[in-house]
Amino acid sequence: MAAEAKRLASSVQYMGGVAMALHLEGSLALQRDEHDATRGYDDLALAIFRTVHDRLGEANCLRSLGDLGRHVDDLDAARQHYNLALVIYRDIQHRLGEANCLQGLGLLSLALQRPSEAFARFQEVLRGFRDIRDLRGQEAVHGYMARAALAAGAGDQALVLAEASLEIGRTISDAVSAKRLVLRLARERSSMDPEAWRALQEQAEDSRKAAIDAARERLRAADRDVYDLPSPLP
């Protein structure tokens, strides 16, 4: 009996590993815009995860299928998959998965030209990422909130939220290093004199800061909270 139980456990573990590999292949295929391959990998992985009762794996596959639906504009299917995944994430108390799922639903609202609905969803996502101290998630959702604010006609809020996304990104060391590398490569490929290049960078940075400061001042004057999307500013 013990030997049989051990063999069964080993088989379940092996199949779980196979499903994880298939799910990873699906994620990579989506990055390459190979949509049929993505669906094939994730459908198969989903079936295995359900067979071995791996609920986190099941939720991850469902969320990936939601991402796929969003990429191919099958928004009804995307919403269905996100909602199914969300139920599982909440049931197993997986906060990161829940936040990512809600973010996908917010992007669906944005695609449907419902910016206020999207903004409210992103607010919920931001609270989740803050609770689990996920800086990358906070950086991304600030960018999405900026897009929603802009779509709603609240340009000043969009500008300040986009700046908040950049500020969070600056605290992530590898993102800062990557930015410096891009700037260095661009400078090396440019025929511009290094001093002129530096002056241009400083001018661009000064203009950006002035625009942000002006937007913040207008929001303060209107007694508007950047995280509460109002009707468009007059």
TrEMBL record:
SUPFAM superfamilies: TPR-like. InterPro entries: TPR-like_helical_dom_sf. This is MalT-like TPR region domain-containing protein. It comes from Chondromyces apiculatus DSM 436. The lineage of its organism: Bacteria, Pseudomonadati, Myxococcota, Polyangia, Polyangiales.
